Amino acid sequence: MDLKCPTCHNPLELTGTHGHCHGCNKDYALRALCPECQQPLEVLKACGAVDYFCQQGHGLISKKRVVFVLQDV
Ligand SMILES: [Zn+2]
Ligand SMILES: [Zn+2]
Hints:
Blueprint: E1 13-15, E2 18-21, E3 26-33, E4 42-46, E5 49-54, E6 59-61, E7 67-72
Bound molecules: zinc ion (2 copies).
One zinc ion is lined by residues 34, 36-37, 39, 54, 56, 58.
């Protein structure tokens, strides 16, 4: 996963559900969307691991397939 700051295009440092830009000193919320239906995924946290689950019938989505979008916080 390689997300860039929409303002200065520095790579974001990702911390779970947030991305931080060192260039702008700004945090972004990460929203996880299903690659099949583009609906928000339910985030399941267990023992330090994070799983993404689509409630629209696509089941568990591996992190590699999750579509992340940035939101201002
Ligand atoms: Zn930035
Ligand atoms: Zn889905």
